[in-house]
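Q: Convert this sequence to structure tokens.
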Amino acid sequence: MLTPTISASPSSAVPNQAVVLIGGGFSAKSVAGGTGSGGRHKVTGTGASIITMGGNTLQSPYITYPIDLDDGGSWVAELIIEGNSSTFSASSLQFVAKDTGGATATASVNLVSRKISIDDSESRIGTTVKLNGVGFPATNVTSPKSFRVTIQYGSNNLTSVTPDTDGEFEVDFVVPTAAVIPSTNTITATISGTTSTSTVNHSVPAVTTSIAPTSGPSGTTVTVTGTNFRAFRTISDVTIGVLSILPSSSTTTDKDGSFTITGVVPGLPPGIRRVESTIGGVKSFASFKVTEPDVPPTATPAPTPAPSVDPAAGLAPLIADENLVRVWHFDPSAQDTPPSFGC
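A:
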């Protein structure tokens, strides 16, 4: 006598999806008591001759009885995994079949874990994020039920979507402008009409302000850049210290929530000064070091040349004081008696 067995296809499924059970080795025609054609056995769906799922008897419209066995005790039946609070929370399901001859066997089907994921866990307000879901109730035209999934971002209702025949979905959404900067927000996917949910977190990054260069004296030309603000918003002010460097014309952030302005460091005493950007009530800070003003080097004076003096004018004081050495010149040939030089 063969041992009864059941196999399930697919071996992993989701609620509201069809599963085929294939039985073998059940009560053959030769086993007495068959109530079917020619004395063959059945799974009738009444009394003890039933198929259960998770301990509960499967009934129409999720299965069709009776299930006829062939001469050797084999059979095939298609059923639908009913989508309900039990199957939404289960990780697997056990099926038990018993025929009119008393043969019984079991089979198990794993349920795909229900979860959602996003392609970008952090992005600014107004960006598009892709949301994927798996393990949700499948679309099944033979099922008496259909399911939709509603999507929320924090307390903001975004959209609803119908999973495909495998219980999967993909949908794009825009990060709501109502989100706080910065913040971490919960995205919730709820099976409509139930309390069954799946969640994932998404973060809105903090705004940033930077300045280049980061130091210099008053009068230095600087570039201030801001990111992650709301798009197309008027810049309220950009200050260094408490003094504005915002151009007189109206300036706004671009489509990415960024801005770049050029200004001049106002007259401020040396020290670290706060750089502050304010847009739509949201503030961001950086710092700038005001340094001492540049002082040009002192030139070394050239030496004063000695004054030019006329020789006669220069000797005049000496002549007046009779401080000159007197010099006599004589010609021996003009003397009456030549001098004797000891010869």
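The domain at 208-290 is CATH 2.60.40.10 (Immunoglobulin-like).
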